[in-house]
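#structure-requests
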Amino acid sequence: MQDQISSRIIKFSESLFESINIGIMVLDRSITVQLWNRFMEINSGIKPAEIVGKNLFDLFPKLPSDWVRRKVKNVFLLKNRSYSSWKERPFLFKFKHNRQITGAGEYMFQDVTFIPLRDNAGEVEAVCVTISDVTDVGIYQNALKDANDVIVYLKELSHTDGLTGVFNRLHLEERLEDEFKRAMRYKKDLAYLMFDLDHFKKVNDDYGHLAGDTVLQEVAAKAKETLRSSDVFGRYGGEEFGVILPETEMDGAFRIAEKLCSVVGAEPVDYDKQKIGVTISIGVAQRHTGMSGYKALIDKADAALYRSKENGRNQVTKG
């Protein structure tokens, strides 16, 4: 990997990144800053010439370095973007806001996104980190519920699992109910997968909860990359996930489940110079005319998942 990002990225960024009201910095594998836009300069007081080419932590020693390194490493490893809401971590940089409101706090609330920047061969050569000032959302989210743009923003947040970035249980069940009704109305196939991580408690006990969080994030990222664009994937709770497979019969769903098992178990998760082996167990269910509702489909998949566990784990069972 070259120490500097390509001229292609620089040329594009110079015309765009300076004009938007979002903080943008670009980091290479060693967390060396390659780009620092005007938003970052204004709020930090540090000019691009003072930080570009230097390690980010040299100028910001109080940043959560382990967290930032893990986020950047995961983008290089998984080639997927990663998101952190202000609800999980109120801010990354201690940038002061200008809101004159009691109780607003001293620093701006920030949403942070880590985006892979790819070369012509499709390999990740750098990570673009965006810093969005969402202080107004944090302060006024209850008072501004009638504002359409805030409603849209908060609705999106309400659908997302904060740790993995996939859909949460509420949204997953809402979508499954809709798909179940549609499948009944038009007599379409519908399948549902439930899977969870094998021996996940042992991962937390042996390596710590931060390692467990990393394992959940990487498993979710691998699963999302493996599934089809039409599939609906979400975290059901804890180490358990669900996948809605519209217009998919049992054999097709079983093949998808086997592929998920294979992809997740193929390589261990790297965490803090340790390799953590991960496998999953899956239950597969298909809608049939005798089912009373979508919850019967969940129950059937859950029962099949339980049998996968009973029979030795790291396998798929039909419900």
